[in-house]
Design a protein that fits this description.
Layout lengths: L1 H29 L14 H11 L1 H18 L7 H13 L14 H22 L4 H35 L2
């Protein structure tokens, strides 16, 4: 029984990673709301948050890191040196795997807000180091795309998670 549970989790992990890639690719190809020096509406973060809430923080974090590496392979990751890659992508997206660790008040808002805030901090630091932007300038820049991403996640993740409950609970 344990073996089929592991296989099931791996299939779900692959599904969430694939969903991220599809959402990210479609947004990259057809989406609007792209910032001039990087950053855009994070539609793919919906898949990462769903993975965390469904599979837990360890597997959710693995899904997030895998999606960064896959995005690197197909060209959706635009970085400006190792600091940018680590802060904007590796750490910035891995934190979404931790969403399930935060207490859920009013559905999933606390985990979504906390992980987006952590990504905001990493991206702000990256902006200060890579672009040598002052703190407030970097914060404003990051907020222009992470604010709408947060709103999208707060609306979509609870709705989708509720809709997926029958599939998730199926044994």
């Amino acid at each position: 029984m344990k073996k089929s549970s592991n296989v099931r989790d791996i299939v779900f992990m692959a599904m969430y990673a694939a969903l991220y890639v599809v959402l990210d690719y479609l947004h990259t190809a057809y989406g609007a709301f792209k910032m001039p020096q990087g950053g855009s509406l994070g539609v793919g973060t919906i898949a990462l948050l769903l993975a965390s809430y469904h599979l837990g923080w360890k597997k959710g974090t693995i899904v997030a890191v895998v999606t960064v590496l896959v995005g690197f392979a197909y060209g959706s990751v635009t970085y400006y040196g190792i600091v940018s890659f680590l802060l904007d992508y590796l750490l910035g997206y891995a934190v979404y795997g931790l969403a399930c660790l935060f207490p859920n008040y009013k559905l999933f808002y606390s985990g979504i807000v906390a992980t987006t805030l952590m990504r905001f901090v990493f991206s702000t630091i990256s902006g200060m180091i890579v672009w040598q932007t002052p703190l407030w300038g970097s914060m404003v820049y990051q907020f222009t795309y992470l604010g709408p991403t947060l709103l999208l996640d707060i609306i979509m993740v609870p709705l989708l998670f509720k809709a997926l409950q029958p599939v998730i609970n199926k044994k």
